[in-house]
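## Example record

The block below lists the input lines for one assembly entry, exactly as stored, with component labels intact.
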Amino acid sequence: MGAIKKIALAYSGGLDTSIIIQWLKENYDNAEVIAICTNVGQDEDWDAVEQKALNAGASKYYLGDLREELASDYIFPMVRAGAVYEGQYMLGTSIARPFQAKYQVDIALAEGCDALCHGCTGKGNDQVRFELTYKALAPHLKVIAPWRIWDIKSREDAIDFAESRNINLGEISKKNIYSRDWNIWHMSHEGGILEDAWNRPEESMFRLTKSPKEAPDKETEVIIDFEKGFPVGLNGQKMNAFDMMKQLNKIASENGVGRVDIVETRLVGMKSRGIYETPGGTLLHTAMRDLEMFTINNDALHLKQKMSYDYADLVYAGKWYTTARYALEEMMKKITEYTTGSVKLCVYKGNAWVIGRKSPYALYLEDLASFGPSDYNQKDAEGFINLYGLSTGVTAMVHKDLEDGSGQAVEMKQMAASFHDK
Amino acid sequence: MGAIKKIALAYSGGLDTSIIIQWLKENYDNAEVIAICTNVGQDEDWDAVEQKALNAGASKYYLGDLREELASDYIFPMVRAGAVYEGQYMLGTSIARPFQAKYQVDIALAEGCDALCHGCTGKGNDQVRFELTYKALAPHLKVIAPWRIWDIKSREDAIDFAESRNINLGEISKKNIYSRDWNIWHMSHEGGILEDAWNRPEESMFRLTKSPKEAPDKETEVIIDFEKGFPVGLNGQKMNAFDMMKQLNKIASENGVGRVDIVETRLVGMKSRGIYETPGGTLLHTAMRDLEMFTINNDALHLKQKMSYDYADLVYAGKWYTTARYALEEMMKKITEYTTGSVKLCVYKGNAWVIGRKSPYALYLEDLASFGPSDYNQKDAEGFINLYGLSTGVTAMVHKDLEDGSGQAVEMKQMAASFHDK
Amino acid sequence: MGAIKKIALAYSGGLDTSIIIQWLKENYDNAEVIAICTNVGQDEDWDAVEQKALNAGASKYYLGDLREELASDYIFPMVRAGAVYEGQYMLGTSIARPFQAKYQVDIALAEGCDALCHGCTGKGNDQVRFELTYKALAPHLKVIAPWRIWDIKSREDAIDFAESRNINLGEISKKNIYSRDWNIWHMSHEGGILEDAWNRPEESMFRLTKSPKEAPDKETEVIIDFEKGFPVGLNGQKMNAFDMMKQLNKIASENGVGRVDIVETRLVGMKSRGIYETPGGTLLHTAMRDLEMFTINNDALHLKQKMSYDYADLVYAGKWYTTARYALEEMMKKITEYTTGSVKLCVYKGNAWVIGRKSPYALYLEDLASFGPSDYNQKDAEGFINLYGLSTGVTAMVHKDLEDGSGQAVEMKQMAASFHDK
Amino acid sequence: MGAIKKIALAYSGGLDTSIIIQWLKENYDNAEVIAICTNVGQDEDWDAVEQKALNAGASKYYLGDLREELASDYIFPMVRAGAVYEGQYMLGTSIARPFQAKYQVDIALAEGCDALCHGCTGKGNDQVRFELTYKALAPHLKVIAPWRIWDIKSREDAIDFAESRNINLGEISKKNIYSRDWNIWHMSHEGGILEDAWNRPEESMFRLTKSPKEAPDKETEVIIDFEKGFPVGLNGQKMNAFDMMKQLNKIASENGVGRVDIVETRLVGMKSRGIYETPGGTLLHTAMRDLEMFTINNDALHLKQKMSYDYADLVYAGKWYTTARYALEEMMKKITEYTTGSVKLCVYKGNAWVIGRKSPYALYLEDLASFGPSDYNQKDAEGFINLYGLSTGVTAMVHKDLEDGSGQAVEMKQMAASFHDK
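Predicted structure tokens for the full assembly:
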């Protein structure tokens, strides 16, 4: 397998990446393996993770604290863009991967590695997301994806491999029903009984959010402040991105907000069922969707809303560091230049309703919209409708032969005349 | 104002259209006015409405029962298409107007009328929707829109007019805080304290849905069956469209489901705040969105989801009877040809979650998606990613001068080589 | 390589597919190979092709005459849709592949074959187009793509293989500068000096079209008649699809019309330079684009024009037999329901200009558009502009602080007032 | 008509705007009228124009030389964006109006005017473009559009008005067959015999371009250099935007390049027939379209191409100074960040062909695309196709019951097995 000497491994501390260290050394002529961890908000005993990496044979261990930047530079732009994959999935895993892979590439380049390795399986989306980032940031480095190469075909095989090499797996056991991903934005659950798409997830599966049924029986009001499409404050208090996420997650989780159960379309074509908990994210999206309707005019808003699907597709595909995403980002930034203001939400037993919004740049003018007297000229509407509907009327005249009430054919000329005359 | 002799009036029984009858007679040389009512599912004492119309001077009265067709031929296609205006408004008023206007035109043609009249104000969307339908179906008839012509500028003026002509307004009074629209799909509320967009709607304003806080503290499961993208059964029982809507409305309303508070962009450009109750509709949309993800492949699904915005824009604009809507309908129909199956919802205190789905045409194959062994060939993924990411890698190589770990420039040729070699 | 017994081979009579027959027999345990040819309009000595196939070891030979159907069922819908890949490539190869593959699959199923084989290389688009059709029509059959498997890496290797097996290659020689594809719609040229994208193609490379410089120095008028978006007649004479293509090709080729030189993006990500001759097709597209502007109203036309890119992408990708293409077809069919009429072209030394058009369903009404007096009410325009531009004005007022001439700040209220007042 | 005291008039020197000065004074209580002219590249005796304005009663005259900026800040971004309305009209009039109106507004604000006036008719697009710019830049100023107000209904009426007031019209006569617009980008022709859409334009109508039949019978090569999507040099010589346009117009006009004959959809709904000469612009668009295919990767290129329709719609509508256009501009700018290089065109008797292109950022790599040996791994293609086509195959299996050759039903399980197995 060539002259690979130093490998940068995206290390999680889990079963797969632990045995990968050993497997790499066995298969790449005892190459050096650097274990690279990223703290993206998951709960973890980081000292134990480091110990596990070194025990498993890593020559070096890195831990990147990506939390603040993940929120401010990845998640918030995505919220601004309104990106929700297939209208349902809030892209919790997708948004973290490019940043995690970028951190790995940065270390790899600094350390002079000649290969990048990840522990994603050959069926999922994450392999694509990691490797597209590798291609974008270090296309000259080799890529090793053990799950697509080795003979280990299941969790059980992996544990057998570990045991045969005396790798200490700590509390990892053969029984791990769900495949999970966790960061400051979300937690996902796949596998187990979820594989039958008709099965309802068990309450015990959820980790972040309280069941709506056990949430408090009282409403909580939350006010989120935005500047230029970015969240900047909560209930009147300015805060940085990571703190914002923590606070919002706390409020939403406590009130059972943010669960979805979907069957999405993976990049590699197949459908896949997943349960997602995105508590704070649900509040952010709800608020931002409202504020954009309040502050962006129709052409720009409708353009933005359609393009948010393209943006979501790019994020889902791991195409963060690509021309298309950069270009959509510029567009979104410009469109939300005046999306500054506050949205008031009411959170209650699984629900998050918008109940008010205000902005110095509100395009909603009470005077224009109200039913009472105003200086809006209602007569303008007649001209507007006549021209706005002109093509509809002309098309109708041209496409069909109309009759008047008496069964008499209406002549084109006569139609045209009354048409203009109105 | 010409030789108008017989006018078909879209009559609601409310204040505006009642005084319009008299106003038309006064201003169009005692022309005959035919009052045309439509039952679209609102609660109404229809005998009283008829009496009111005749009292006000109508020569004839028609009442069309549009309920079943409104559900089956207008609402269901719209749900199939996934049309939600600006991602938030379920188009409750918009979807009824073209059908109501079509019924009016049908009568007008049968009766040999020479003009069509409606009671919409000059600031709103409904005038556009009515008149675009007129243009599409009877472009040779004249259109009269009194609110854009007369001197009556407010509700108070209208009542004064009625009193000066001794028109009996029944229970209509000067105090009518909210402007409302009601049919089998929804009820809308505008005006009053809502005009300040920061104000939360009062609980007393809602008419269809119970407050989530007062909804039962237990979950209700609902199973909706679809055939080719259309709802056909509820909890295992086949039913027609109107009954389906009634049942779904009952369940959802009882459980506080279906309220939204939004500031939308009107056709005539201004922003407008509205509160909508769409109880059963919320269940239908939720279920249909899920089933389409389960049964439609990625290209077609993503195409459909983006086009649903165009479909929604057309419905909102009253462009139901136009080439563009007809064409999108054909597209939506084809895409949902196999969207047959059942979706299981859990309804609870304002929430409606999908908790399971099944279909004879599920594109979700447990075997393909699962984490255990299968005959999916993981090695395919390597080739896929290499080509799927080829342009990302080539772009990266071309756009930047990369360095390897040692600060050495990476030659293009070397990059290209390792790129292919991977 | 398993128990493959009978292979359906897409046979062209060229070098590659000739040696494939022998290679298949050697590598699949002397499996039976059925050679399947398709006449899509290329010039060929079909008897010689048959002889070559049987000489090379095929057990059976089929020749499908696909010309009329290729034109009527594939090319004409594509022209109706306005599909041109990346705005430049008229999809000449792409449109034929699905039909050729379908013919092959039909024979394979009728003959009880257990595998499908094609001779496309592993770098191009055609492998994708063939195999996507296989997957769509016979996903249970195995696929053999020798170029991705064998050790033959070049034209020279292939000839060596043939010589070592005594396969008679007729006039095929090692020197074949360009890679070409030819059917009734187009001829493509790749390779040779074209690989340097700065090189101009040599005149001697072209095969279908006369050089514009050698074309007659006089104009030729051509009138093409369409019904519902499909070409049906030429210069007043009804004709079937294949005859239409023949006639149009003759006129256009004679006059040097239809050459393009482009660098397109292949499905597998890389850019590729090609020269295309699409003589008759250029006339058809030019005429159809004009007639659609004449007969389709703005909403539908603009929808169609944007969707034509999606349609083109699907054709380019070989996704002819997919839900998305079927759905777009329904849309295009509906939109062009009244695209009936005639377009007059002037053809001259490489040019094809539209110089007139007429239709019973023209949406162009002289009276409406002319500059002289008419019954169009110019005053409508004021109302139209006021509302059409309302959001632009409101946005301007909200986004900036304006000054009047004297350097005085203009108050929002004052702006709003004059705004409405206009 | 209120207290309007000082009016800024967009003055052309033509018949309409000459009588407007007098008409304004008569109808607005002898208000002061400032005549504002713009040089956008049309041929004009500017001294005579000034004299005419002052003779007609203008209190002041301004002449703005907008040529360089029109090219660099309006036309070039539009070319970069690839904006061509309805795929045919190169937006020659549309692109100039916002800048002309902006110049008018700037003077109006500096002079302390209280109203803006233009001489566009009530049927066309230009009134919309002028007034949308007014709304965007000075929403507090009043707008006067005499053609929508006065009783003058034709050219003849206008001349009568002028004669009755002794306004010296110079060489303007009643006979002016075509309505024309001219600037450095194009000249348009409407009216006269063109109103019958079947009539071919007379050769004598054209003003900018030589007839292809009278163009030289020899090819001319032109090389255009671009930087970041903007034209910067011609045949190796750097030049500013206006000089570039002049040079390109000269070459193209001399060779009969740039005529189109179309029926477009006006903003106010009706269809309208126009003939356009856009000589240099045709060269620029042709070259830029080619270079973008050469330097932009597939995702970004396809995104750009679809969005160019939206950009064109905004320009056509006069929505230059709107959020949506600003946002698309940012997108286009980002996408073309590396669209730097040269395109070689051959111009000959009406034709403009690309015959070569080069770029330091070419994404076309000879090595990757060529047919000879390279280090591209053809085996990747198999994996790519299997996953790229996975959903097509799964959909086929799920949607239909297939038969094998013998008429036996193929079991789903069997299909799936061979599917994966391939």
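Residues 184 and 246 of chain D are 7 Å apart (CA to CA). Chain D touches chain C through 127 residues (CB under 8 Å).
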